[in-house]
Amino acid sequence: MNHWGEAPDEVHLPPETVLNQMEMAVIVCDRFSNVIYGNTFARQLFGFGGDDIIGHSILSLGIAEEDHEQATELAKHVLKGGVWEGTFCNLRADGTTVYTRAHAVPLRHPSGAVDGVVIFAREALRSNQREQERYGLMERIGERLAGSLELEDTLRRVADTLVPQFADHCFIDLYSGDRLYRRVSRHAGDWEPPPGTWAEVGEPVSYPPGHFSAKAMDRRDAVLVEDMIQHRFAAPTESSKRLGVEMGITSVISAPLLVRGEMLGVMSLALSNLTKRPDPHYDGFDRDLLGAIASRVALAVDNALLFEEERETALAFQKHLLPGDRPPPLDGLQIAWRYEPARPLESHGHGIQTQVGGDWYDVIPLSAGRVGLVIGDVEGRGARAAAVMGQLRAALRAFAQDDKPPADILRKLDEWVRTMTRPERMRSGWNSDDLVRPPLVSCTYFVYDAWSRVLEFANAGHDPPLIVVDGQVRELEFESEGGMLGLRAPGMGGEILFNEETAELKPGSTLVLYTDGLIDRRPKDDGEYYTREESREMVRAAVAKAAGGGVEAVANAAYDAVPGDIDDDVAIVVIRTAGDELAVEERTFTAEPIMVSEARRMAADAFAGWGMLDEQAELACLLVSEVVTNVVLHATATPAPRREMVVPVPAGPPGRGGEPLGAPPPVQFNTDFATALDGFEGDDFGADEFDEDDWDLGADLGRREPPTKEFRLRLRRGHDMVWVEVFDADMRLPRIRSAGETDEGGRGLYLVDQLATRWGARPTADGKAVWFELPLTP
């Protein structure tokens, strides 16, 4: 018999019994990080049953993806004979999250070699070494809060961190003006409070005096209510109070969100009967820890609010630089566009930037119903890229009004971009790098004529658009890519060529213009990125599938074609040509005064056939007469008096006939030749203008009849507008004169300017075109 205090005869507990009864997770892994043993507490802590993870990697414990690198570091360090300690985020099979504090040591063979790894783990905040774990958890929370600058994402990360590990209920209320609004209402197990009880997200919140949240804001310190049964607090409403009693709220901590002396709001955590916990009450350590967490949350929220304000300002700035939400109505075209900014944190070494970028697009009404279309991308992101984009759009709109070919417009725009270089003083003073180079801009400019269906374009280093014809999708072929605008900096030699190209679009054809943000750096599920060609193929397939729908459907399909978050802002413009032919009348006349009435008669017949009201048709015919008369007057050749020029020659020795040598007869020029000379200036009259067989300066030149002058009248009808164009071979562009009271002429273009909706003149390949437009109805 054993006496009191003496050891029993047999004291033996099997190791398996000890491991399964201890309140500590024990995980044993081999040298390849595969789990070979896990005790009962480990199954409860990590949420797996039986031997589900035996033989699998340590990652099968539910280690969050963000901690995979940390788990690899653990294995490497311990297998070298070291000791490792840290905090993991684990995702259980039921979807809940648990933070664990792990301590790993080597598993040694009797020979001294390291055979594996032994990991001891407990739930964070529930071990005996709270002070050590406090630093680990604060580090983890700081990492999660630093992962985003978007307010909603930041608040979601806060709730995911605190529920259900630290609380069954999490509420975050933020000030907007002088009122509190509920921004987060998160509960364990995806439970939701009944409507009309606790305030929902977006609703205002008003805490009565004496409420623990009101006390926290008044004291500017965390308030702990260890046992809610012993303390009764006034509730915002009776229904919210009843729900708190029904849920069995046991303990609450409320902490103010205070940063830079400014009160942003309040965060409250509560424990209830939603989950079963060994100790459903907070204590002083929890209050201090969650108070420290609240200070970090307040800083993250403040940063997010500041960034959101900056982003809203930048996006509003860019929104007013780009066209409006809806494209203007255009004859013969359906248009849809879409612009999406990039995520702000995907900056790849350029620092945190706003979503504003340099992608741009525009639709520019030109003369006679023609339309200018542009898509482009300024390198970089941020306010500078947006400012350059705004200047480019304004400059291109101004240049486009000259109605010159697209290649000429791009040459002019390139010259303008290169003038944007300016010296800036850097912090280190002046040096050779102080000159800020011009921005690089890719751009394609199109001019489309819906009546002839001709598309003219020139490219400056931009990706070719997709074209859909009869359901087949391909890229619009560019003969030349062209250099990007601003590529040739001041002082650099060489010339950037922009080639003029044309294409004819069939009825119902669709063009999809886009910027490279649509196909660049889209992440795959494995962490890699799609190549540009893979992204292009996905966009082609999506556009082909949606080609039978409207232009909005095509734009949406193109944007959604490549999965993953966009790394750069994206602009998409979709245009579709009309299936029907547009009304047009055209005729060529000789430039004689009698033809003015003929041109007016043609216009009157066309306007009547198009259903124009009599009053409006009369006005249109008047303006036709004025423009045609102006063309006829200036196209008619004005006769000039016959001219004779005598070239004096110094007298020389007498010749055989008694006349001085070197004294030829006077050289005479007839009127036509003299008039022709008047038309040339300087180098315009080159040597190749002469032919010895045609020009004999020693003979009297015979008078030649001038070629017959002609003009062409073209009338176009749109949905609610009529355009009149008069073409002639005179290169001189008309201008409005200030006619005096007694002048007989000089008022024709003034009438056109006052009575037409718009008017102008543009150069053509063989002369000019004067045009004006009028509405079909006054």
Number of strands: 30
Q: What Rg, in angstroms, do the CA atoms define?
A: 41 Å
Fraction of helical residues: 25-40%
Distance between the termini: 122 Å
The shape is: elongated
Which structural class matches the secondary elements?
alpha+beta
Largest sheet: 6 strands, antiparallel
Q: Give the amount of beta strand, in percent.
A: 25-35%
Question: Which features characterize this protein?
Answer:
six-stranded antiparallel β-sheet, alpha+beta, five-stranded antiparallel β-sheet
Structural description of this entry:
The protein has 16 helices and 30 strands. A six-stranded antiparallel sheet has the order 8-7-6-11-10-9, with helices on both faces. Strands 2-1-5-4-3 form a five-stranded antiparallel sheet. Strands 12-23-22-19-20 form a five-stranded antiparallel sheet, with helices on one face. Helix content is 28%, strand content 25%. A hairpin with a 4-residue loop joins strand 1 (25-30) and strand 2. By secondary structure, it is of the alpha+beta class. Residues 18-82 form the PAS domain. This is SpoIIE family protein phosphatase. InterPro entries: Bact_Sigma-Reg (IPR052016), GAF (IPR003018), GAF-like_dom_sf (IPR029016), HATPase_C_sf (IPR036890), PAS (IPR000014), PAS-like_dom_sf (IPR035965), PAS_4 (IPR013656), PPM-type-like_dom_sf (IPR036457). Keywords: Hydrolase.
